[in-house]
Amino acid sequence: MALKTHAPSWIGASPFGHCGHLVRRAGLRAIGLSMLVGACTAHGATPSPQADAGLCALADPGPDALVQVPFETVDGRIYVAVQVNGQGPFRFAVDTGASGIARADTRLLQALSLQAQGQSSTSDGVSTTDVETVRLASLRLGALVRTDVEVITRDYGRRSAADAKFDGILAREFFADGLLVIDYPRKRLSFTRASALRQGSPGVLAYERAFRVPVSIGALQTVGNLDTGANVRFVLPQALYRTLGHGALSYAGRAQLTNGQVDLQRATVHGPFHIGALTLADVEVRVSDKYPELLVGAHALQSTVLLIDQRSKAVAVCP
């Protein structure tokens, strides 16, 4: 089972909000992490925020939208048509778990006769490897254009099924200066600078690190990383799963990361999970001792409209 085809989004993150400084000091050791999760949940559960009608109305950005395009999904992941260097369209994944502006697959370089020019490194949370970079003159989605960007390039398609292959990835900074709306039921993506989410408004979830938002699992309060590039519902660190007090796990195979693989186990968690106005109960999850934070993947979001405003560091989930 392939969770992602690029660097996972937990890298460098503190997954437990106001207890994050304790987690960093503990070095994410399993025993210490389990104790810290308990400390972070000492105040008990709080009600799930309800998304009001005005908030969810932002899902329809109107004539001021710079982007309003359809998308397709394969195994939960989102794909849109993008112009690169004035050519295309090319198939790009939209991945809120990826840092930077974009990624380029090697087949994009071949199509545009581009050469890798630089070097960088990437980590999948387990191991780090050197990678090449390429400079793109422009990336265009609708009327939203980014110019002169240097991006990581890799052979992402080598591990992808035929229907999931893509030419590149639009990462979160591509959408950094406006309101991104991912409407899963209508399979429509929009982006506007004319509307905004405001912290403190009903149903709005504030974050410090993109996109780690409050999540409750039953009475347990924690933080989860919203990652549209992960083709799962939830992945729980093993220490967090133990804190929930659930039973035995069963083996669920290996997950492909950027630089290697990790073993996963499965279980059903009754929860319920609350993320904003979204409630999910009796969910089959994946569990790994390699994951340092709760991952909220694409399959958990399939019935929602996801709104992300990086200007105000705010997220809303409208079911």
Which properties best describe this structure?
5 helices; 319 residues; mainly beta; 23 strands
How would you summarize this macromolecular structure in one to three sentences?
This protein has about 325 residues and is mainly beta. The protein contains 5 helices and 23 strands.
Q: Within the largest sheet, what's the order of strands? A: 16-17-20-15-21-14-13-18-19
Q: What number is the mean pLDDT?
A: 83
**General shape:** globular
Q: State the helical fraction.
A: 10-25%
The oligomeric state is single chain
Total DSSP helices = 5
N- to C-terminal distance? 27 Å
Low-confidence stretches: 5-47
Secondary structure category: mainly beta
